[in-house]
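Sample log: Serine/threonine protein kinase.
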Amino acid sequence: MAKRPILSAPFVPRAVLKRDVFSEISVGALADRPEASVTYRRVAHSAAWSRPLAWVLARREIAALVALDGIENTPRLLGVDRTGLYRSWIEGAPLHVAKPFGDEAYFRDAKALLRRMHRRGVTHNDLAKPQNWLVTADGRAALIDMQLASVFAKRTKLFRVMAREDLRHLLKQKRTWCREALTPAEKRLLARRSLPADLWMRSAKPVYNAVTRGLFHWSDGEGTGDRMDTDGTAIAARLDADPAIRAHAILPFPYPRSRGGVGIYAFIELAEKDDPETLEGRIADGPQPRPDLVQVVAKLPRDANGRVRDDLLRLVAINHVEAIDSLGADPATLDLMRGIAAGRRNLTDRRLKPSVS
């Protein structure tokens, strides 16, 4: 393996993006290059009992990033120390936030990226999660989160099986967002799960879910646990039924490190005749489950098709508002977002301090 890089300067964090039992991920910059964003996976955040496994996952990511060095739209390993690893930031929105309906070009680019990765002998092994696929500002595909990746010296039978599963999981994403572009060959591949994958789903996956969700209180939701699936769904249903609410967006944000876990931030677009403060108080003090933070606004940002821009609101929820300008919004939307950002309710991560190596 190539020698692991050492940071050129201390890391200065700006916002925590997520936390789970294995690590904490934050975004910031190096002190000598404040204009270039950096992602930090802090393995030292994990509990003592989970740290050995957390480092196993971190080492897999480190090995994959070293093998992928130079491939566009994959993270570049910037440094490794006793606390964790640092990688380059890729600007973009997760697939489930960007919602690339009918975007055939995106999925052609994603398939080409996957081929480049496989030619380096790397399989990702976690592409069923839309959070690991990004849509960049110029519409390209990018991949992140290599904790489960494998690096192969030779194209063994196991490599071919795992590479096939990577492709099949990409095609599952394509089926969700661009079904009409699936070719007959792609449909046949989707219909045939490999034997290892079938055995995993029938036997190992239930055990995995029981351990990660029951013992670790962790799931595949990028650190959100199951709270967005349970509390988030219930909160959204109640807001949908409220005549004072025209639209809403329910997004997760990490609690302060001292508390741990994930909070729920509700952005609410006000109906014309209602008072913002009254509505905000009613939702914040309403029945459980309820949002941890509530922000009522006159108007939510939307794309050209009228869909709420969750990608922009997510940056406010996690207090990473300096990245809003980079997501390709029009001037009117940027003005709207500056007002929403000015009234944000999450200010906790502004208390972050630089890491000590």
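Observation: The first helix runs from residue 51 to 67.
Observation: The domain at 227-351 is CATH 3.30.300.30 (GMP Synthetase; Chain A, domain 3).
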